[in-house]
Specification:
This protein has one helix and no strands. By secondary structure, the protein is mostly helical.
Length: 56
Amino acid sequence: MSQEPLTECPFCEFEPDVPHADPKTAPEKSQHRVHRHVEQEHPDRTDELSTYTSHL
């Protein structure tokens, strides 16, 4: 079961502004920015991200 990369913050309305010029890297960049946003804006919830993504 593969999960879609995070393209928006699951805890608020944040959506990273990532140009979709390169469809191969855009989802990866988007997910990276969502993770960074959560670390900065929701530091008490960073461990909850694992329920939204799977890195096994």
